[in-house]
Amino acid sequence: MREVTLKVKVTVPEATELSKLEKKSLVSYIYVGTPHKQFQNVFGSEPRIQLNDQFANTTDILDYITAEREARDEAEVPFMITSLKVDEFTKMGIVTDIKQELRKASALHINYSSRKKATVE
Predict the structure, then answer these.
(1) Which pLDDT score is estimated for 120?
(2) Over the Cα atoms of the chain, what is R_g?
């Protein structure tokens, strides 16, 4: 089981219509958020992309998806999901750039991580 050390602050947005991912071993995560305090002097306070344990640019996404595909069994590749864990205050521009790179990589099965909205009764 691979664990990632988050270097960005991610508070996923709330949603009402959610579905649970069945096979988490087929999910590749892309984290987007403001770097934690100890990384802000190097990376600044603007939202950054994190792939595995590294900060990255949108141009690195193609290589990341290719590496994730190669690490999987060939039969599992069509079922791979790319999950975006994006901080709720991140602007959509960076998300759009990520989606464009995922299209170039033919990673068209995208999931947006969120938390269940608290219902008021």
Answers:
(1) 63
(2) 15
> What is the rounded CA–CA span in Å between residue 29 and residue 72?
15
The amino acid sitting at 106 is S
Q: What tokens appear for 96 in the block? A: 């759009």
Token representation of residue 34: 């403001």
CATH class of residue range 8-14+22-113 = alpha beta
The mean pLDDT values, 10 residues at a time, for the chain of 121 residues are 82 90 90 95 94 95 96 93 96 96 96 85 60
How is 46-63 classified by DSSP, letter by letter? S-EEEETTEEE-GGGHHH
Q: How many CB atoms sit inside 10 A of residue 70's CB? A: 9
Helices (H), the chain: 37-43, 61-70, 92-104
Q: How does strand 48-51 pair with strand 14-15?
A: unpaired
Could you give the dihedral angle defined by the CA atoms of residues 70, 80, 77 and 23, in that order, rounded to the nearest 10 degrees?
100
